[in-house]
């Protein structure tokens, strides 16, 4: 918003990484992104193939090419750079979604994509498959002010999401109230790929309560960053991952750990 105020125009979203620089960019209608077809040879692992590989890492997932992707489907991205470098058939680790096969408004005859999630950030609770994007959106929709968060799957009598959250702005709430608020917002999200629509029946039949919240002390994420800086870690590792943090990360945050997945 500050860039828009200062420059009079909202910036275009660009998708890329350190290994490949730019992979895709928004067009001037700000609706999805389009691949740069001349920078990388692009291959796409369908999400079903990715799940097969997750269950058996000796499995070689099948790929499709840019002219074979389907609208509404998710794919793990594989790239080979046309301009040299060591990355050959490199699995970027990102899951993207093809939103359309062309941009009708601008008459661009190339598939349109959005970043969906990291390929390894799925928390599968059976009737709810939660990604970083889904959890973040639910948190935002609660309007509860927070500093930061991290979450992982725990397995006891039933699988559940354990959300570790640092509140901000002196906001006061119980862990149970936050858990209920987050769960209610998750159920409202229009995300048929990941959230079973008839959760109410599970709540009645088996007392389905898939969210547990632990409220962390004020300043814990700042302290984590300072400690990691003192250890000399790289910039990208100064913040804990939002999804599936290691036991070491949770320990540094002072979080009590339950049973992992």
Automatic annotation (TrEMBL):
<dbReference type="InterPro" id="IPR042099">
    <property type="entry name" value="ANL_N_sf"/>
</dbReference>
<dbReference type="Pfam" id="PF23571">
    <property type="entry name" value="GH3_M"/>
</dbReference>
<dbReference type="InterPro" id="IPR055377">
    <property type="entry name" value="GH3_M"/>
</dbReference>
<feature type="domain" description="GH3 middle">
    <location>
        <begin position="34"/>
        <end position="104"/>
    </location>
</feature>
<dbReference type="GO" id="GO:0016881">
    <property type="term" value="F:acid-amino acid ligase activity"/>
</dbReference>
<dbReference type="InterPro" id="IPR004993">
    <property type="entry name" value="GH3"/>
</dbReference>
<protein>
    <recommendedName>
        <fullName>GH3 middle domain-containing protein</fullName>
    </recommendedName>
</protein>
<dbReference type="GO" id="GO:0005737">
    <property type="term" value="C:cytoplasm"/>
</dbReference>
């Amino acid at each position: 918003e500050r860039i828009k105020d200062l420059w009079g125009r909202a910036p275009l979203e660009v998708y890329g990484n350190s290994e490949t620089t730019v992979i895709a960019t928004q067009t001037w209608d700000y609706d999805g992104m389009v691949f740069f077809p001349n920078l990388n040879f692009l291959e796409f692992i369908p999400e079903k193939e990715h799940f097969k590989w997750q269950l058996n890492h000796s499995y070689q997932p099948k790929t499709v090419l840019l002219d074979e992707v389907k609208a509404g489907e998710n794919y793990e991205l594989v790239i080979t750079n046309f301009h040299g470098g060591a990355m050959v058939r490199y699995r970027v680790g990102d899951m993207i979604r093809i939103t359309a096969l062309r941009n009708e408004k601008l008459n661009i005859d190339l598939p349109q994509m959005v970043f969906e999630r990291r390929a390894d950030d799925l928390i599968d609770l059976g009737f709810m498959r939660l990604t970083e994007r889904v959890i973040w959106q639910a948190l935002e929709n609660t309007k509860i002010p927070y500093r930061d968060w991290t979450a992982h799957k725990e397995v006891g009598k039933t699988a559940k999401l354990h959300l570790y959250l640092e509140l901000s702005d002196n906001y006061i709430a119980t862990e149970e109230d936050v858990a209920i608020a987050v769960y209610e917002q998750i159920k409202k999200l229009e995300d048929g790929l990941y959230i079973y629509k008839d959760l109410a029946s599970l709540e009645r039949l088996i007392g389905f309560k898939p969210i547990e919240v632990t409220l962390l002390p004020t300043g814990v994420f700042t302290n984590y960053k300072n400690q990691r800086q003192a250890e000399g870690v790289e910039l990208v590792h100064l913040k804990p991952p939002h999804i599936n943090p290691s036991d070491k990360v949770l320990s540094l945050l002072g979080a009590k750990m339950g049973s992992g997945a």
